[in-house]
Specification:
Four copies of one chain form a homotetramer. With about 375 residues, chain A is an alpha/beta fold. Helix content of chain A is about 35%, strand content about 15%. The longest helix of chain A has 19 residues. β3 of chain A pairs parallel with β10 of chain C, so a sheet runs across the interface.
């Protein structure tokens, strides 16, 4: 008897498994345009700062916005639960490792989100003259979406670990009807996170203006370890880019995709864009800024989960100002500073004049930086061949 | 002359090489059923605790059972050789590394298994009102199977490193006739371990109700290093699942498969189920419980082998109670606690309403967690790119 | 609807992922000729020393040249900016890590390249009776090319991270017309770096006599981390070799290719040649010489970039004289000394009588030295299986 | 124009990349025969001890032989150069790292091989009543072969890093005519090392009775690092096995193949046999014996090379007696002791009754032990996911 077919496993690739190959021409940086228009907002630098308490406060949203990127404020974090969030942030960054999860559960469960604070924080960003984007979970989207519009937000993001248009429940009314929500909202709606072609295409059909791509790979996210769920980013972005193209061919509408998770330096940003992303969302690179609310620490927003915490607090240290990180000049050579300069240089070097050309660049699977080149040499210096 | 064909090597995959991809819908956890019926026993949590002295005692079998999983008692370990096993366990966990193998050979060879203790230990589990499952080697199955039935066990497991239905010997009478044994036993018989399609299908034909899958990958098992034998789990489970399907199509009978070995956290459990397992058997995650008989240590049952010891004693430490490990709440974010909560969340996130739907989830081959994401970042923090 | 095609990723290989397989015969070393004629210059040892300040000074160019290899002098480094470069080199090798980038930007921006010093340094090499090769960026090629010819250089190299024949700019006049430049120059022109078939072929059509291959993998280069750009060397060389062959079939002219970057020991040199390179350019192996201007340190030439530094300073230590490194005798067994002896032995062992036969050797993809053999054993010694 | 074809790279596999899969039956160890007849000599244990000074002396050859394996004496090492080799061995194992290569070059160049000592050492082995096998380089084969026959050796081995039947030289008379040599020698001739199908087949046609397979992977060998040459063992053995089969089909003669290099524990031995080897040759596992001449150290025989040393001295420590290593009982669980017991258990577990059946076992490519299972868990314990 012929054996029943075995389950098949497709290979998926992470960002540190790929490299970009120059095209047949190079460009004068003057001819390069790295801007990206996402959900009607033109970003001079195609970067969103993650809606995480260690990354975006009204203050950092202002600085990031002034440099041409966008900081997304989490409307369900400490900023909207506490009059004085700095006091709370101080506690989080100084608590010992063993009391960390407990403290986090405490902080996020004891104090509810307050309508007045929501509006106050949004206005604090808006008043700095920058693009104002805020995020909410699907559960709170109706309430917070309304407040966001009232306070003048420019775009609204709905985010959960894994999102779909088809949430099945005994009480379906508690599920957000995304199509209706998009129709009702006078400002653009963005949604995430998705990883697959099917879900991304479904989400695009609801009327959202951008879809965030990526599950599992984030620096402060332990979803893959705890749940086994994840899709390496290079492959995930390429799936989403195919969905964007299908949707465009069907409807004529270009819905942006934003790579979100596991992007740790400027090289990763460039790779994400070459895989097809219109922009990236990054957390840990900004958590290293001297102005970051995390004070040298970075943590995931799934941590406070009462029964199944899934985010780690990691010490990222402080490497420079937000300005140095975003537009330089860089004092280091590891891709952690002057992110926009690196993107511009990569576009020019590869011969991509704009985001659309960047999406066409050749991508190869390459041995991880961890095993090739420098590491190999380091191993040799350490005498690992003896 | 054409070269003679070279031996061909098929690629097989381990659990830490794969990741699970969300389907096109998500589920309210209320709609998810993670239970699994194995050998007629309904497990609310699809987890068996390994029949290892460092993991299951009558006491831990009771606690594990009350939370909806099943602890399998090894009928040939210290519990049935010693009136006072705690004294012996204390010795094992405190002996120095260099005297460890010697002590183990001593403990298991000097004191035979005693019929009265076998029955006493089984009754001690039974009296706690939980499902009572016990295990034996093939050599002792006739004798211990009889005692297990008399003492009221609910199911009987036969386990050796590698099992087959066709054991060839000069003295074939010393081999267990598995078909006859299954007919004779009034309680369900489970057997292991197998890794291949052929052997799994053969075993299913004997009348066993469940087959344990996995050779080599266990934390306290050195079979692959010593014998070169093993099959990475993701592939092994997918082979066994195909055998289960073939057997089902031929006979209408659904024989369960249980992934056993190398499963170290909740993510691995979820991956095993998505590859096709009906349940998992885990040792080291329970050896970390404060109630574990191993007292912070974990060791393999092949260690006492007089001439070819193949199990290591590893220090696993203590991370929480069995309750915290099984049903939470979790105080950590590494997938070591609230295993059932993680399984439930994974089902809901992936859109699997029950075990059968979980078996259909998409699996991708992904760069190891050791090389992607967090590790990558850690390497960067450690300056490994300098 | 059929999904839009996903972006495809080709696998590319690094030097530490391959190994060379002996042919069906071996050779007496007497019958082996490892010399290579590049741009009209016959190299007895097919090695160029990188045009980096830590590697080539007029003095080391002399020593290297006398042993049959060629040291390329960077005409835009400290040697042509400072009367007394040793003072500056001393500072670079003794500055602390945190002030390093700043110092470098200072050194290279404050003091311009001086025509007189350019000629003086070239003559200092020339006067030692060795082949004199110098390098320049494309921006300075017109000016420095003229000076090089006047001072008697034998060949002129134009080098930037990524070079192409089609540089697009609003001010195209600032771009170097490579074809015209080659026609105008009375000495052979070499150019780099390239990685792809198309660009290499384009460059060969301009009249250059050699193309340097390799982007990203160098020991003191962080291009891949910062920009995401790179192509592993084994694949890059094989692409370039195909372009050389195409060009040869079209024109009858054999334009050499030189593997440049990420070559750390004699094994890597042999692999590069077997992949198709006519010679290699190496930096870090020479930076370890007692005569090296880097004084035990090695750094990339993109470091001084004012806004986006991309080179690291690494401490390589000092292992022996240039003579020991180039022609032995070797006091070590790690492939860092007697590079020419290793090349000769590899040719003889593989059965390659000359460079052209070496290009035909069989190459296999092999598990990295980091994971096989010695490392595996080391891991075992360290008890990593316990 | 179509690009010229790129050089193609075939994937080759190392022993630590594979695992063995049980067949559909298991065997009582009583029914298993692990013996192997090589060059007319029946080995009860299919293991040769490497012809290395740190491994085989007349004394250890005697002990190894009495247990059913064979120790091969190097006729060009310290044993035949010095009346009192123990004095010299003492020096080698106690010299400091920096003076090691120098000392080795001294020891092997100052004192020539002496005819009388050659015969004396051979007789010292012979007198212990064990199989007496000795080795020589091709250069000395005529002279030493004659002496070996006179002194009563049972088989003669010719070994160099890479051997071929077609050695090309200006002075071809200095090359050994292997066919003639085999005809002239009254005892069986064995030769090595080879890695490819073609060379192995060519060698078999000369009349040798066994071919040693393996270049590069040995613990004390740095050929791959220094020369870039090597072929991972699992693939190399499978190539050689195909040559053996082709030769057998052409001539009816079965010429044995022996896997030599990079075999570090009993698991590797079992894998080598399953890939097709008739026996293995191992060095480092025996260098760990308390009786080993290396006194806790192990070194390659290419080290004394005057201009290009290629062997490292590694400290392997001492783990037990030769008896414990060969036939047990084992005090450890890492595959370093009771090698014959492990082979027997593997045969029985896999269902292989003899060497010929062992050659048919299924082999899978599996994630390295370094990345799966225990290591994965170790990484978790070390908090590498934090």
């Amino acid at each position: 008897m012929t054996p029943h077919a075995f389950k098949s496993f497709t290979r998926a690739y992470g960002l540190n498994e790929i490299a970009l190959v120059p095209s047949h021409h190079t460009l004068d940086p003057e001819l390069v345009d790295i801007s990206s228009t996402i959900a009607g907002l033109k970003l001079d630098i195609p970067i969103f700062a993650s809606a995480m308490d260690s990354v975006v406060s009204p203050k950092t949203a202002g600085i990031i916005g002034k440099h041409g990127a966008v900081g997304v404020l989490n409307l369900e974090g400490v900023q909207t639960r506490y009059e004085n969030p700095d006091e709370v942030l101080e506690k989080i960054s100084s608590v010992s490792r063993e009391h960390y999860v407990e403290l986090m559960q405490d902080i996020y469960q004891k104090n509810p989100v307050k309508d007045e604070l929501v509006k106050e924080r949004i206005r604090a960003i808006k008043s700095q003259g920058v693009k104002t984007v805020v995020s909410s979970t699907p559960q709170s989207a109706q309430r917070l979406g309304k407040l966001a519009v009232e306070a003048g937000a420019d775009a609204f993001m709905i985010q959960s670990t894994v999102v779909s248009t088809q949430f099945k429940s005994k009480t379906p009314e508690k599920n957000l009807n995304l199509s209706q929500f998009c129709k009702d909202m006078p400002i653009p709606v963005m949604v995430g996170n998705s990883t697959t072609y099917d879900v991304t295409l479904d989400l695009m059909k609801t009327g959202v203006k951008a879809v965030f791509i990526g599950i599992g790979p984030g620096a402060a996210c332990t979803t893959r370890g705890v749940l086994g769920i994840g899709l390496p980013m290079a492959t995930a972005i390429s799936y989403a880019a195919a969905a964007r193209q299908t949707h465009f061919e069907m409807t004529g509408e270009y819905v942006s995709i934003i790579a979100d998770g596991g992007i740790v330096n400027s090289g990763d940003i460039c790779k994400s864009l070459a895989c097809g992303a219109d922009a990236v969302m990054i957390g840990s690179p900004f958590a290293k800024a001297s102005e970051a609310p995390g004070r040298g620490f970075h943590w995931g927003m799934a941590t406070p989960n009462a029964v199944l915490p899934r985010g780690a607090r990691i010490e990222v240290g402080t490497i420079g100002t937000l300005q140095e990180i975003l537009v330089g000049p860089s004092k280091t050579d590891d891709g952690s500073q002057n992110l926009s300069g690196a993107i511009l240089t990569a576009f020019a070097t590869l011969g991509a004049a704009n985001m659309s050309e960047m999406h066409q660049m050749e991508v190869v699977i390459a041995p991880s930086l961890l095993t090739e080149g420098k590491i190999y040499q380091k191993a040799q210096r350490l005498g690992m061949y003896k």
